[in-house]
Amino acid sequence: MSRWIEQWDPEDVRFWNEGGGKRVAARNLAFSVLSEHIGFSVWSLWSVMVLFMGPKYGVDPAGKFFLVAMPTLVGGVLRVPYTFAVAKFGGRNWTVVSALLLLIPVITASFVMKPGVSYTTLMVVAALTGVGGGNFASSMTNINSFYPLREKGWALGLNAGGGNIGVPAIQLIGLLVIGTAGATHPRIVLAVYIPLIVVAATLSALFMDNLAPVKNDTGAALDAARDGHTWIMAFLYIGTFGSFIGYSFAFGLVLQNQFGRTPLQAADLTFIGPLLGSLIRPVGGRLADRFGGARITWWNFLAMAAATGVVVIASAQKSLATFLVGFIALFVLSGIGNGSAFKMIPGIFQKKAEAKGLVGEEAAAHGRRLSGAAMGLIGAVGALGGVGINLAFRESFLNAKSGTPAFVSFLVFYGVCFVVTWAVYLRRTAPAADAAGQAAPTGAAAYAEV
Fold first, then answer.
1. DSSP letters of 327-387?
2. How many CB atoms lie within 10 A of CB 222?
3. pTM
4. Which regions in the chain score pLDDT beneath 50?
5. What domains appear along the chain, each with residue ranges and CATH number?
6. Do residues 165 and 36 touch, judged by C-beta distance below 8 A?
7. Residue 432, strand partner residues
C-alpha cells in the first residue's frame, strides 16, 4: 500500500482541524517518537557499557571518557545527511531504514563486549552507535514538515523529549541487569534491544506516511548555511542539547571517579537526570509557544549557570548530595532549553520571511524551507557539544583528578550563551539590512516571540 501524501498544508486551519491533518500528523508523531526513542537508546549504549567494563578490560577513566565521546562525534556528523534523507527517500521510508541500521551497532557490540578486547576495537564499535544520533535529525525534520508553526514548539518538543527518554531507558535497563545478573553480563542489555528495533521498524512501515511536497532543496541548505542565525542557534544549541547528551554519557563515569561510586551505585543514579531532562523538554517547547523561545532560552541559560555554580562548589567540597541536586537541575534546565531553542528556529526564519515582505502561506513556506534545512546543521553542531563535554571531563580527570575544572569551563560557556541570546534576540536595536539589502529586524520586536 502506498504511504505517500501528495498534498499537505498544515497552516490551513480548516484542513488541519476538519480535513484530517491533525490526526495524520499525530499518528506520524507517535511512531516517530518510538523510533527516535530506540535510536537515542542505541546512541547512548556506551554510557551503559562502560559501567560493565571492570579492571579486566584495562581501560582507565580517561579512556572511558574518550570512548563515550566517540558515538557523540559520529552521531553529530551523521545528522547532516540524515536531514536530507527525509526528502530524498520519504519520512516513513527513512524512519524504517534508519531504525534497521540500529541493528548493526547492537549486534556488533554483542560480539566484542568481553575482557581482553582491544581498545581500538571498542572505539570502532562505539563509533557505530553514532547512527542512533543521526535519527534525531531526520525525525525532527520530518515532524517539522507535518505541523503548523503555531504548534511546532509542542510537537517538536514532544518528538525530541520522547526520543531523549531513550537515554534513561537504556540506563535503567543497565541498572536492572547490573543489580540482578551482575556487572559481567552486558550482553543481556544488548539482547533486549534487538527485538525492540525490529518492532519499531515494523510499526513505522505500517503506520507512518511520506510527504510528497517535501523535497530536498540544495539552495535552501546553502541559504541556511550562509545565514548567521543558523550558526548562532547552533552555538546556543551546544549549550542546551550538547549539555544534555554530554552529561548523559558522562554522568556515571563522573560519579565513579569523582565520588568513588561502584558501577551499581552509579547506575542507581545515572538515569534520573536524563529522565527528568527528557520529560521536561515538551514543557520547554510549550513555554516557548506561549512566552517566546528567546525569552525562555535567555532565562534558562542564567539558571544553568547558577546550577553549574552549585555543582562547582559541591565538586570542590566532594559533597555528593549537593552535587546531585545541582547536576540533576542541569539536566532539567537543558531539557527546557532544548525545547525553547528548537522552537526558535522556525520562528526566526518566519520572521525573516516577513521582513522580506512575504505574507501568509508564502511566508510560512519560506520559513519551513529554511528552518528544515537549518535544523540538520544546528542539530549536528549541538550534538558535537557533547563531544566537547566528555573531552573536557577527560582532560579534567587526567590532569586534576577532579571534574571541577571542567565544570568551571561549562559555567563560563553558559554565561556566554546568556549574553549572546540577549544581544541577538532580545536587545532592542534599529533594523539592520540583510544580505539582499532589505530591512531585517534584529531586536526584541522581531525575535522575542520566536
1. HHHHHHHHHHHHHHHHHHHHHHHHHHHHHTT--HHHHHHHHHHHHHHHHHHHHHHHHHHHH
2. 11
3. 0.84
4. 430, 432-445
5. 4-447 (1.20.1250.20)
6. no
7. 440
